[in-house]
Amino acid sequence: MRKLPVNKICDGVFLLDEFGGTNCYLVVGSERALLIDCGTGFADLKGTVESIIDLPLTVIATHGHCDHIGGAGAFPEIYIHKDDTAFINRIQFTVPVRKIFSMGVGDARRQGVKVSDVKKGEYKTKFIPIDESFSLDLGGKQIKIKHTPGHSKGSIAVIDETDKIIFSGDNVCDALWLFLPGGLSVEEWLPSAQWLYEMSKSYRVFWGHRNAELKSEYILQVITWGKEIMAKTKKNAFPSRKKQYPEREDGIIYMTGRVFKK
Ligand SMILES: [Zn+2]
Questions:
Q1: pLDDT of residue 225
Q2: Is the predicted pLDDT of residue 22 greater than 90, yes or no?
Q3: Residues within 5 Å of ion ligand 1 by Cβ?
């Protein structure tokens, strides 16, 4: 399996790029390291982490989608918000599903990732449910979490208080996905996005895919689109259909039957 390209964000904070698929992050303290998300699992994430650190490792997932916890089998346990542990479908850890993903994701094929690289996980991973009371002292780096429901019910942002960095998962981004099963309404998502916008005035924000760093102005733009969807919608549609607003590549993708909280 190929090791992931590593980019340093600041001292002790690294972006591990699963070949243009998922952005995983490693925060390293003096006593312990924290891995945020474990990708789809077609590259050697564990080996990549071990090439950077020789410390006990805690793994946390920003949410329970297969491109963020597909690589779970390399780790004995993963912390995930209690509202997402209920949705975890173990099918996503199976070799055939991850093989399919490895073919379609980002730059993987071009960078030499082979379908045959996808192997059965080492562990039957235990998912440990957490809530906002979760915190971690990595030794010189303080970690907290914030529940940010929207993209999934149990989405969280991981906050590195020491470096003033937030790892926001997929809850605010270009082409934001609110349409998936288990996703929430635009109305229910909005407060999390507003929280992130306020925080982005004093924290750097990194999300789960593509161009990793989210700028304040862009977060505000996505919020404005969300508000516009609500203003243009009288009530939740039935039957519900998938729609992108605005009609441009990076517009929010949502279900017309899930604009407002029921
Ligand atoms: Zn996701």
A1: 98
A2: yes
A3: 65, 170
Domain positions in the chain are 6-255
**Which residue has 């600041």 as its token pair?**
10
What φ, ψ does residue 110 adopt, rounded to 5°? -65, -30
> Which amino acid is located at 169 in the chain?
G
| Number of Cβ within a 10 Å radius of residue 77 | 13
pLDDT reading at 12 higher than 80: yes
Give yes or no for residue 79 having a pLDDT over 90: yes
Pick the CATH number of 6-255 from 3.60.15.10, 1.10.760.10, 3.30.70.3270, 3.40.140.10: 3.60.15.10
C-alpha 30 – ligand 1 centre gap (Å): 31
Residue range 214-226, pLDDT digits in tens: 999 999 999 999 9
Task: State the virtual CA torsion across 184, 185, 190, 193 in degrees, nearest 10.
Answer: 40
Bond preceding residue 246 cis, omega within 30 of 0: yes
- Give the distance (Å) from ligand 1 centre to CA of residue 184: 12
91: confidence class by pLDDT, cuts 50, 70, 90: confident
Mean pLDDT of 148-162: 98
Between CA 84 and CA 182 the distance in angstroms is: 9
152 CA distance to ligand 1 centroid (A)?
A: 7
Residue 250 pairs in a beta bridge with none
What pLDDT was estimated at residue 104? 76
Separation in Å, CA 32 to CA 27, 29, 52, 176: 9, 5, 12, 33
